[in-house]
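Quick one:
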Amino acid sequence: MNDESLREAFHNWEGLSMEQEQRLVYESRLKQIMDEEAAQREAELRVQHAEQKAEQKAKEAEHKTKETIALRLLEKGLEIEFVANATGLTKNIVIDIQRGMQK
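Output:
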């Protein structure tokens, strides 16, 4: 083996080695980007879940408030249909509230 062929072999090996290093750097950067995107998506999902939970709690609180108002109106002797119209509750719910008063 002469010096020129040995020099060429080392040059080729350095080229392959550099390509492997570049590939590892690329893969490392790609993983970092994918991890960042996954973390961002997870954060967005947490925010979305929190918003949905808050919205559900608000609806429950609104319904409870309507039921409280309906109870007060029924205690004053107002008619079921009037109470349902005033609160936005169904007649069946108002009837259930009235039944609960009688217990």
